[in-house]
Task: inverse folding
């Protein structure tokens, strides 16, 4: 009996050693594929966006693999992309767990994705520790690649930052909305616009607040911030915050919120608080669910966008846009969303960088991403080129401003581009029901 | 910021509305705890299912969503009874840890089942009365909020009559007060467990319907925040005390909204726990709680 235990023990040790040897051998053998970890919120409150992110990455990988994969000079052959799913569970802790697993157990060559600024911030130190190239396609706070407490040199931001979208939107308010209000209501041309801001209490929301303030200050805009209200992420009852905003008598309400917050904000403002103002939404909301959810209460509101489900900017990206949206719909059904398209491009960026580097070595790939100059894919980029700024490794997008217009044929609003001038589908209009702030 | 009478009254209405949802949720939670001494952490998920039941019937039938209370409450009662029979009864009395883990497990199960049936996208429906407002003292109030407040009052009155004026209600109260004595006088306490869990779930279902009618968005993961508030209310009002849940719900609903108005929305959730701490310092058993055994 005693001998049996000894044999069993020896057997286990031998099998264990054999398996350990196998693992060792596998890890030293040359990689036969490009392993990309996709950080996506596949469960939890952000799971709708997370699904878009994952499916868009799948579509990009399949397209690249169908063309024979990526040629890696060091290996002397083309290798396919293999995606690894990293569900951040819409939480900071979930993101840390997923990223840690993908880096240490799945041995991914690079990471793509990352939705919420808060979630991405929480796992950046893990990425920095292992020096894995990371193309962040969702988080919008500029702090992501500007923070100094973590080495972010392997991280690249392929999504407009809150600085970009906040600045663009504030300039639009000053150049387009302010003159329209002053002209319609006979106010002096230099009357400052009264702006209220309702923002999520998160890096994303605070980033927008800062961007608005900085844009007003840096450009000496005639905009007075008359109200600043905040709310917790995931909030659904905004009635009191909107009542407070109403008492400040603004002309325009700038909202920095996610889809599940933006819909009740606009609905409760119009329906419950009788706040007849122009509402401004920020890009993550330009999604079919937003139009469905906000219904008629979205009429005449404005949304800053870069990838809309219902309007395509005329120009060089139009064909690529239509192809991507059609392919996505055919494969998965539905609309991929902004985080989806950025991640789709993120996979292409990663693939191109590996091809340029000619190796899977992470440092070389990081350098290749930093030096990348590739033609825009689906989204309109500044200079029609995807490249990352030398200082903070941010790519720069061409952003649009859209106004929602009621379409009785679909019983929903539909967006019309009102800025920039070269892409404009119609002029910005003030509705008859609009009530401006007092002069 | 200067708060005029109009703003004060408007915020009071929003506070009362929020309080109504909290009251329904917390009363159900308290009823379950009072009778079974079980803390159901998945109670917010029952509100979520109530919201989806209302949504589904609304889409299928186009009925007035208020009428759909007649669907959401009975369906949630049945779901509550099933949960009690299948999940809690087998482990009742085996230790608090088992009850806690069962109810935490239920959160994930109910959320995933809901996501499987209804997907995890945000949903919303519109009340047929959304265009109608009533002017009271110069203040325009959407009629939906008045209906919600009146409906909550009616449900609570119904619950009061059931508990105080019926034999079954008497048996529920007896079980809540002394389980062993109730058994000795011939009350089937297991049946009372089932009944109280069913009613508690039904009240959560009603909260879900009223949540939906007020134009709130919802998805399978929306139940946790209201549940946390409901737990705070239960402790503020006193464990097992239904009047405590009502008063606690009103206090929290109004306090939260005035916090948003005066300090800011970032403090809204914190105020529940600030009140909770204050109440526990002054009255360790809650406002209406009895001394722990």
Result:
């Amino acid at each position: 009996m005693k001998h049996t235990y000894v044999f069993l023990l020896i057997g286990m040790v031998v099998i264990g050693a054999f398996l350990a040897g196998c693992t060792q051998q596998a890890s030293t053998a040359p990689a036969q594929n490009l392993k990309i970890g996709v950080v996506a919120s596949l469960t939890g409150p952000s799971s709708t966006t997370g699904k878009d992110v994952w499916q868009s990455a799948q579509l990009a990988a399949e397209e690249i693999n169908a063309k024979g994969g990526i040629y890696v000079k060091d290996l002397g052959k083309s290798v396919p992309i293999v995606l690894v799913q990293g569900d951040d569970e819409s939480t900071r802790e979930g993101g840390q767990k997923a990223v840690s697993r993908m880096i240490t157990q799945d041995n991914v060559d690079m990471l793509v994705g990352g939705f919420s600024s808060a979630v991405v911030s929480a796992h950046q130190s893990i990425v920095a520790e292992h020096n894995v190239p990371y193309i962040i396609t969702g988080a919008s706070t500029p702090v992501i690649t500007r923070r100094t407490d973590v080495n972010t040199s392997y991280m690249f931001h392929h999504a407009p930052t809150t600085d970009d979208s906040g600045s663009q939107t504030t300039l639009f308010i000053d150049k387009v909305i302010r003159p329209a209000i002053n002209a319609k209501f006979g106010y002096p041309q230099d009357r400052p616009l009264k702006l209220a801001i309702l923002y999520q209490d998160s890096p994303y929301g605070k980033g927008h607040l800062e961007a608005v303030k900085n844009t007003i200050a840096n450009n000496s805009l005639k905009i007075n911030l008359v109200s600043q209200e905040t709310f917790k992420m995931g909030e659904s009852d905004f009635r009191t915050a909107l009542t407070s905003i109403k008492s400040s008598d603004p002309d325009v309400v700038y909202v920095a919120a996610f889809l599940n917050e933006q819909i009740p904000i606009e609905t409760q403002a119009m329906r419950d608080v009788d706040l007849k103002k122009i509402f401004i939404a920020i890009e993550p909301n330009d999604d079919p669910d937003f139009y469905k959810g906000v219904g008629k209460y979205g009429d005449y509101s404005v949304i800053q966008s870069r990838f809309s489900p219902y309007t395509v900017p005329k120009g060089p990206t139009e064909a690529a846009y239509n192809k991507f949206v059609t392919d996505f719909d055919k494969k998965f059904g539905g609309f991929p969303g902004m985080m989806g398209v950025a991640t789709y491009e993120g996979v292409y960026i990663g693939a191109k960088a590996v091809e340029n580097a000619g190796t899977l070595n992470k440092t070389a790939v990081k350098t290749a991403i930093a030096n990348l100059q590739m033609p825009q894919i689906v989204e309109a980029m500044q200079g029609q080129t995807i490249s990352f700024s030398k200082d903070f490794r941010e790519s720069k997008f061409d952003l649009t401003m859209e106004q929602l217009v009621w379409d009785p044929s679909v019983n929903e609003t539909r967006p019309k581009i009102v800025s920039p001038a070269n892409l404009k589908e119609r002029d910005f209009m003030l509705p008859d029901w609009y009530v401006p702030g007092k002069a | 910021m200067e708060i005029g009478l109009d703003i004060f009254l408007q915020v009071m209405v929003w506070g009362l509305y929020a309080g109504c949802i909290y009251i329904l949720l917390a009363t159900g939670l308290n009823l379950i705890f009072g009778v079974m001494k079980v803390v159901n952490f998945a109670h917010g998920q029952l509100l979520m299912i109530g919201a989806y039941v209302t949504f589904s019937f609304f889409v299928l039938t186009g009925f007035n969503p208020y009428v759909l209370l007649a669907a959401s409450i009975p369906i949630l009662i049945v779901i509550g009874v099933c949960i009690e029979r299948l999940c809690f009864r087998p482990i009742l009395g085996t230790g608090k840890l088992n009850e806690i883990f069962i109810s935490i497990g239920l959160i994930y199960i109910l959320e995933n089942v809901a996501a499987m049936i209804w997907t995890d996208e945000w949903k919303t429906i519109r009340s047929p009365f959304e265009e109608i407002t009533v002017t009271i003292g110069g203040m325009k109030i959407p009629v939906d909020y008045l209906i919600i407040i009146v409906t909550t009052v009616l449900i609570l009155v119904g619950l009061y009559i059931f508990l105080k004026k019926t034999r079954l209600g008497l048996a529920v109260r007896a079980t809540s007060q002394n389980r062993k004595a109730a058994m000795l006088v011939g009350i089937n306490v297991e049946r009372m467990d089932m009944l109280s869990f069913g009613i508690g779930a039904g009240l959560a279902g009603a909260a879900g319907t009223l949540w939906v009618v007020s134009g709130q968005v919802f998805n399978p993961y929306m139940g946790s925040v209201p549940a946390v508030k409901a737990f705070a209310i239960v402790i503020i009002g006193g464990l097992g005390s239904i009047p405590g849940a009502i008063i606690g719900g009103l206090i929290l609903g109004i306090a939260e909204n005035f916090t948003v108005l005066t300090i800011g929305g970032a403090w809204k959730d914190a105020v529940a726990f600030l009140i909770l701490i204050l109440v526990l310092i002054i009255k360790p058993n809650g406002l209406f709680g009895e001394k722990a055994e």
Q: What stands out?
A: Residues 38 and 408 of chain A are 40 Å apart (CA to CA). The interface with chain B takes residues 44-45, 47-48, 201, 229-232, 234-237, 239-241, 243-244, 247, 259-260, 263-264, 267-268, 271-274, 289, 293, 295 of chain A (CB under 8 Å). The first strand of chain A starts at residue 34 and ends at 40.
